[in-house]
Write a structure and sequence with these properties.
Keywords: Membrane, Transmembrane, Transmembrane helix. The chain is of the alpha+beta class. It contains 9 helices and 13 strands. The protein is elongated. 28% of the residues are buried.
């Protein structure tokens, strides 16, 4: 088996887990593209009629918007026309149903909704009309959270100059001001720092891959850590962190957990080992493979360094320091051997010159 840092390929499994989280974004983009053509036809019609004070909007009926399981918040893309005494909303739904409503400005019943939660996207919403004909609107300006809030707030004030916006209407979500998102961010950086510093710089022991690892511990730990993306996402959503920030943070933390996993279990196994490191005798075989002379330790494969081991006779005995703890891992102290190999290859490079 090869010496490695236990870097197994979990790409397919990770893709299966992450795909549902990106499904919403793909459907949203697809739906927006399909409804754009209908919206363009409405705009062309208004321009021909001489209207010039209008806004592109996303539209959702209250019954659709209130559904917690709805992947996409909007139902259609329409046009809001700002007239002198009233506003007119025109939209065409994917089903072919057309909507054409007018609301007197003296009774718009505007309400600022902001981001829908917990199934929020980056859109900021307002409600217009009474219970019977209430509609949810968002300015069709950009997918960026701050731009959506600003555009929707501006549209709201232009159709009703006396409307009072909430103080946070134009503000962007700040991760550092939410204790849950701040904790997750700090956890990500701590895990990443540990993975890089301890996993690469400090720990001189390398994990030896064994046949038992393929379907057992610790290989099963990585898929379990990938599943953490879901509880972390739910935790952030409950704390009213917007969906894009929640999705990004939950994915980053899961990745950091996976990166820190191997360095962590290596350290734990070292600390729990009753014997500490022990010296084991190995016999050099063909193709730079070293076989243990005693039962227990795994094979050490230096196939990538055949030139170095070619200087030794086949069957020669070499000693290596290994740590074996209660987690069942075998870890090799490779520092001394690596130093010798560096000196060997540096000497070869100098001789070639």
């Amino acid at each position: 088996m090869n010496i490695s840092d236990f870097s197994f390929d979990h790409g397919i499994f990770a893709l299966i887990l992450i795909t549902p989280l990106f499904l919403k974004h793909w459907i949203s983009v697809r739906k927006a593209k399909l409804t754009k053509q209908a919206q363009d036809r409405l705009v062309d019609s208004l321009v021909r009629e001489g209207f010039n004070n209008w806004y592109r909007v996303y539209v959702a009926r209250a019954s659709h918007f209130s559904k917690s399981h709805t992947l996409i918040e909007f139902e259609a893309r329409g046009v809001l026309v700002n007239l002198q005494d009233q506003v007119r909303l025109i939209a065409e739904f994917p089903s072919g149903e057309c909507l054409d409503k007018t609301y007197p400005k003296e009774n718009l019943r505007l309400r600022w909704i902001g981001k829908k939660w917990p199934a929020s996207s980056s859109l900021a919403w307002i409600a217009i009309g009474s219970d019977e004909d209430k509609l949810m609107l968002s300015a069709d300006a950009a997918s960026n959270a701050l731009q959506s809030s600003e555009a929707t707030a501006d549209m709201c004030l232009r159709i009703d100059t006396e409307f009072r916006l909430p103080d946070n209407a134009r503000s962007e979500f700040a991760l550092e001001k939410n204790p849950v998102s701040l904790t997750v961010v700090l956890a990500f950086f701590l895990l990443l720092t540990f993975a890089l510093v301890d996993g690469i710089a400090l720990n001189k022991y390398k994990l030896l891959a064994t046949a038992s690892m393929q379907f057992g511990f610790p290989i099963l730990g990585l898929p379990a850590l990938m599943l953490c993306v879901f509880p972390v996402y739910r935790l952030l959503a409950r704390a009213k962190v917007p969906v894009k920030e929640s999705l990004t943070l939950s994915l980053l933390v899961s990745i950091a957990l996976c990166l820190a996993y191997v360095p962590a279990i290596k350290r734990i196994d070292q600390l729990l080992s009753d014997t500490g490191f022990q010296s084991f005798a190995y016999r050099l075989e063909k193709k730079a493979s070293l076989e243990p002379l005693s039962s227990g330790p795994p094979t050490i494969d230096y196939a990538g360094r055949k030139e170095y081991w070619a200087q030794f006779d086949e069957g020669s005995v070499h000693h290596f320091d290994l740590v074996h703890g209660p987690l069942g891992l075998w870890q090799l102290d490779h520092s001394e051997t690596d130093q010798k190999m560096r000196q060997f290859y540096e000497g070869r490079r100098k001789n070639k010159k």
